[in-house]
Structures are given as structure tokens and as C-alpha cells.
Amino acid sequence: MSFVDSQRRVLSGMRPSGRLHLGHYHGVLKNWVRLQHEYECFFCIVDWHALTTDYDDVGLIADHVMDMAVDWLAAGVSPSSATLFIQSQVPEHAELHLLLSMICPLSWLERVPSYKEQQENLQHKDLGTYGFLGYPLLQAADILLYRAGLVPVGADQLPHVEFAREVARRFNHLYGREANFEEKAEAAILKLGKKTAKLYNSLRKAYQEQGDSEALETAQALLKEQQAITLSDKERLFGYLEGGGKVLLPEPRPLLGEAPKVPGLDGSKMSKSHGNVILLRDTPEEIEEKIRRMPTDTARVHRSDPGEPTRCPVWQWHEAYSDQATCDWAQQGCRSAGIGCLECKAPLIQAVQDELQPLRFRALDYEGNPDLVRGILAEGAERARDAARETLAEVRYAMGLHYR
Ligand code: TRP
Ligand code: SF4
């Protein structure tokens, strides 16, 4: 029996979409880089998820996986701090997905908002497939396989994390009960020692009778500290706090990242399909060219025409990148026609160059050395599998698949 501190485990996944852009960096990767120092992080390139929608266009998956891995590494996601791996190299994801499919009601899948939405958005393609319907369950398996308590995602993914919580709850409800669970839990309480047992009981009562979630957290912290009891007893006591039986698959919580402040080059959301991106590995010349070509306030036809920053995407970039003095300079210069648009863009070109220069530098190690990247991902898959196997052993056992 293994004990996993779920509150310290993070899992997130990204579809292999090829090279990443500044929006990914500000919205996701910077967050990951921060989290990797505080938590045990698993970052997964979800290539099977790509197949759920792009099953008819598979030629570029492998290249996209490699490009994305290089960008993760370039952004500072570090193989010595976090576990980076490819989903399909950890086949345990598929087994858990299969096992969970036995208990997942069809109606839950059908009412996930992205199901109908995506089918409507991608009308040219038949998404009436088994795989596409099961997509949120595959995502739930990605998370639950590591018993990750925390899932850093954007707002669009909240329904999927909620879905994973429901699946975990159903699983625990069905299989978390062992014979005489309550007796065993009460016996475990006695093993805590008098003082701790008393505290545990009163915190449990406060949570169960008054819904005091602080009491729940305090009790969980108290249990974590206990050295003298067995891991099984510890797990029973965790489960007993919340009622039911043992918590086999803890319910994950979303860690909502900030919405990225930098819009696309044209002021709308940065996205490859809009053609308004700066890629993390664009050259300095490409960066300069793209920013120089950014549209500005259309009222400034001539250099002598005053402009209005709030009508200009360049101004939104200043708000994201520039200090107060530069912002004041740009606003005043624009409204008085004191500066030209190229002048106004110069500090931004510099800021983006400065920001991306270390990424480009780090990428050099990997771009010319795909074997190094493959090695990192293979090692990541090994580490991920070790964690995954532990969970699966418990899941198999709980579902009656034990033949010893
Ligand atoms: N569905 C997510 C997306 O489209 C990607 C994803 C797959 C994921 N598995 C995950 C995200 C597990 C977080 C955790 O962006
Ligand atoms: Fe936009 Fe700056 Fe030109 Fe004003 S001066 S229109 S803010 S680029």
C-alpha cells in the first residue's frame, strides 16, 4: 500500500500542437516553471488526446510532440524538477481509462459542454466517435492515475476537472469501502495516542457536523505528521474524516492560471489559427518584423495625426510589458502626435527580445539534439510509470482484479 500526498502532486497536460507562442508562455508555462519548485509535477504531452479530434490527420503528431517538448524545456520546465512525458509512452493511462469507463455513465460524458460545442465547431469532421465522446474520461484518467490533487489549467478546462472529481467520487463510493471499515478506522484512531485521537475526533466532528473545512485541513495536516501508524491506517483515517470509506482516488482541484495579459499582434486573443502569434523560438529578426507590422490606431494615417492608445493593440502590449514611465511616454506621445508608431513600438521589441532571449538560448541545447529530448521524455515516462503502476495496482485490487 502506498501513501501519496495528493496535495503536493500536480498534473497537467497539453495537446501536441507544435511550436508554442507567447500566449502559452504567459498563460501556462511560466506557471508550470513556478510550480515545479513547489510541487511534485507531472507534465504530460497528451498525444492520444490529439487523436480524439485529429484521427484523420496524423502525419505531424510526432513532429509536434518534439517541437512542444523543446519549447517546454526552453521555457524552463526542467527535467530535474518535473516529470515530462508523452502520454502514449505510459500505457497505464489507457488501462485506467478502460477501467473507469466501466463506471462512467454515458450521460455524464454527453453533457460535458465541450462535447456538443466541438462537434458544432468542427462540422466538417465526424466527431461522433467513441474516442471523442470518451475524451473527458481519458483526461480524468490522466489526472487520477497520479492521484494528483492539483491541476493547473485555464478556465476552459474547469468542466473537465470537475468531471474528473465526479468520476473519482463515484469510484471511491463504489470501491472505497472495505469490510468493517468503521471498526478499522476506530481502531486506527486509538493507535494515534490519547491526545491526538481526541483532537482528530473533534476536528472530524467539526467537519462532518458543521462542514468546517478548516477543521478538515487541520485534521489532514495532523494525519500527515503521524509517524507511528501504518500507511493503511493513515489512509483509513483520511477517508474516515470525510465520511465514506478509504479515498482511493483523491478528488483533484483546479489551479486556475491567470488569463494572459498579452493579446495577439492584432489585439484579439493570441492563437495560431488567427495568425497573430510570436513563437517562443522566433528569431530576433522575426520578432522585430512582426511587431513593426502590428496594426495601430487607424486614425493615425500620417505621422502628424494624433492617435488614441485605447484603440490600438500596441497599447495593450505596453500595458503588459512596459513600466509606468514608458506607458506615460507612449500615451502622451500618441495623443500629441509627439512620437511615431515605430518609435512607440521600439521598447516593446526590446522587451520581447529580452524576454525570449534566454528561451532561445536554452533551446539551442535541444534543437540540434533530438536524442537528448527523446531521452528526457523516455526517462520521464519511466518515472511516470512508477507512480502510475502504484495507483493501478490499487485500482485493480479495488475492482476485484486480484489473483494472488
Ligand atoms: N484537455 C486539455 C486541453 O485541451 C489537455 C489535457 C489532457 C489535460 N489531459 C489533461 C489538462 C490533464 C490537464 C490535465 O487543454
Ligand atoms: Fe498605437 Fe503607439 Fe501608434 Fe499610438 S503611437 S497608435 S499607441 S502604436
Automatic annotation (TrEMBL):
Entry GO CC: cytosol
Keywords: Aminoacyl-tRNA synthetase, ATP-binding, Ligase, Nucleotide-binding, Protein biosynthesis
Top EC class, one word: ligase
UniProt EC number: 6.1.1.2
Coiled-coil spans in chain: none
Gene3D superfamilies: HUPs (3.40.50.620), Tyrosyl-Transfer RNA Synthetase (1.10.240.10)
Catalytic activity, reaction form: tRNA(Trp) + L-tryptophan + ATP = L-tryptophyl-tRNA(Trp) + AMP + diphosphate + H(+)
UniProt cross-references to InterPro entries, sorted A to Z: aa-tRNA-synth_I_CS, aa-tRNA-synth_Ic, Rossmann-like_a/b/a_fold, Trp-tRNA-ligase, Trp-tRNA_synthetase
Gene Ontology molecular function terms on file: ATP binding; tryptophan-tRNA ligase activity
Example GO biological process: tryptophanyl-tRNA aminoacylation
Keyword Aminoacyl-tRNA synthetase: yes
One Pfam family matching this protein: tRNA-synt_1b
The keyword Protein transport appears for this protein: no
Family affiliation: Belongs to the class-I aminoacyl-tRNA synthetase family.
Descriptive protein name: Tryptophan--tRNA ligase
